[in-house]
Amino acid sequence: MHELPVTESILKVVLKHAEKNNVRQVVSISLQIGKLSDLEDEWIQRYFDYLSKGTLAEGAKLKIERMPIMVQCSDCATSYEAQATNLGELICPACGGKDITLVSGREYYIKDMEVQ
Amino acid sequence: MEEVRLIEVKEEILADNVKVATEVRERLRKTKTMLLNLMSSPGSGKTSLILQTIANLKDKLRLGVIEADIDSKVDAEKVAAQGISAVQLRTGGFCHLDATMVTQGINALAVNDLDLIIIENVGNLVCPAEFDTGAHKNVMILSVPEGDDKPLKYPLMFSICDVLLINKIDYLSLSNFDMSAVRKRVLVLNPRITIIEVSCVTGSGIEDWITWLKKEVDTFRQLK
Predict the structure, then answer these.
(1) Which of A42, A73, B65, B166 is the most exposed place for a label (fewest CB within 10 A)?
(2) Which residues constitute the domain of residue A54?
(3) pLDDT tens digits, A73-92
């Protein structure tokens, strides 16, 4: 639902790095997005295509890597991966504990980009 | 053909917003104004809760309200009529508030001596969870008619809030809403959350909410 502002931020960061590095054309951009995000890959690309028209990043392909939701058991400190659909009913596989903290799964990160 | 090279970027996409949000928090810490971000689905009772809060606290605290809900009944004039500083942000069809919009709201309030500013965020359980507004406390409302499965459908929202208000408990007898299942689901997502059951219509539980809020504001004002 908020793909537009997020995509604007991606483009801003990409263009900043492109100008700094005397880039002629951005070919692709590698993103890491947490699985807790509701963003749809297809829509991010569509918005990006629209916003990047006439810039160095026009036509760039977004490579989106979905990062796992990691949780940690507060009792025995075991970390493990959770699915967004069963977050409400987690039980630690090591000790059976139910006091669980979210460690990651919310990130929006630009890793690198391929340029010419 | 021209060679393709790799540039390392290593940047958080929402870093700009986080920076502005941190500035908002710092600025309000200096004026000892606590900023509270109120979020929920449309129709779950944000407006009613704000009116109840104003009625209970307007003689004890200096309050301000930043209205962002697209179709809110509490417009700036109505709140201002109660002697409360209020601004209405024109968010258009925007699905959430970000820290820059909140900064505009604080500037528009044009007062530096408030104890508490409440943001009525856009009615939506998805987008507002992703954007730091600069608030010191995040509070959400889940109302009984929405159903007890909401923590399973919108885990992020439940995981970022300090308080969950379960509103419209006067509807409990008319529904199959499972209160203990909700509490269990929410506490797994967020073991530190405070859960308060309220009804803005009957006034049930409002005292508990006001007690929590007053204590938080008092603690905040004593911070150095």
Answers:
(1) A42
(2) 3-115
(3) 889 999 999 887 777 678 89
